[in-house]
Design goal:
Elements: E1 3-8, H1 14-21, E2 26-31, E3 34-39, E4 42-46, H2 47-50, H3 54-59, E5 61-64, E6 67-72, E7 76-81
Antiparallel strand pairs: 1-3, 1-5, 2-3, 4-7, 6-7
């Protein structure tokens, strides 16, 4: 099982994808107009590192797959496998 999120490929979300890509435990691929971001157990993305404003930050997640968001606040996004 893995933690997996989908993020729409738009310029506003580039920071989220870029920060996720820095983690060697994360894989990113494309599914249609979405980035699929996958981690083995837990996915953690630091909001400040993304450069996203709050409105973009809280709307960046387009979907989850067998995962649950356990934190999404002004500091970080943490997603674990279900």
């Amino acid at each position: 099982m893995t933690a997996r999120i989908y993020v729409l490929e738009v310029p506003e979300n580039e920071g989220v994808v870029d920060v996720a890509a820095r983690d060697s435990q994360v894989t990113i691929d494309k599914v249609g107009p979405y980035f699929r971001i996958t981690a083995d157990d837990e996915l953690i993305i630091d909001r400040r590192a993304t450069g996203c404003r709050h409105a973009v930050w809280y709307s960046a997640i387009a979907g989850l797959e067998d995962s649950i968001i356990v934190q999404q606040d002004k500091d970080a996004l943490r997603v674990t496998r279900r």
